[in-house]
Amino acid sequence: MKRIIDGVLKFQxxxxxxxxxxxxxxxxxxxxxxxxIGCSDSRVVPELxxxxxPGDLFVVRNAGNIVPPYAVAxxxxxxxxxxxxxxxxxxxxxxxxxxxxxAMTAILRGGEQLEALPEVARWLHFADAARHAVAEQxxxxxxxxxLNALVRENVLAQLDNLLTHPVVANAIQSKxxxxxxxxxxxxxxxxxxxxxxxxxxxxxxxxxxxxxSF
Length: 214
Ligand SMILES: [Zn+2]
Hints:
- There is one protein chain.
- The chain contains ten helices and six strands, in the order ααβαβαβααααααβββ.
- The protein has helices at 2-15, 20-26, 46-50, 76-87, 102-109, 111-115, 118-124, 128-137, 143-163, 166-173, and strands spanning 34-39, 57-62, 92-98, 178-184, 191-195, 200-203.
- The longest helix has 21 residues, at 143-163.
- It is globular and about 55 Å long.
């Protein structure tokens, strides 16, 4: 914890002075460019990955970058989505999975590990559609192939779940929001994005800016 407190003191001493005007401007309001739904994993740092600063991203992170379907239960993810779209008017929502995801690994292993973690097990049921897809399509594959497939299928499943939220569905219909499905590879910093026309993940580039179309 000492390193973390030292970090705050360093921020106040060395970083804040040069960005004082930005923070004072942001103290009144925020207008983020996008909502970023990522995994809580410490290796996935949205602002670092996207090179954005304070005020740029409205971030929700949880185990497995999961979006519970609308009205299943009150929750922080649903409330944040509603606020981001209806109040902040974010034009883009990114769901970002990543390589080596512990939540996705737990789904694949299942069994005893999840029995000892009832809250995790209940939470990861929101990825059942992805688990079923991988079980059907990659039944004979090795563990690494299955994990990579599950990470991708889970991003797609959570994009589907996003669409169950009326505020998102309405904003998409009126072309006010675009959805993006990303996968970040930790070892190489590669980011791929889902191309709905090609029905596969492709390297992220300006050409993929259009997002997933529905
Ligand atoms: Zn993860």
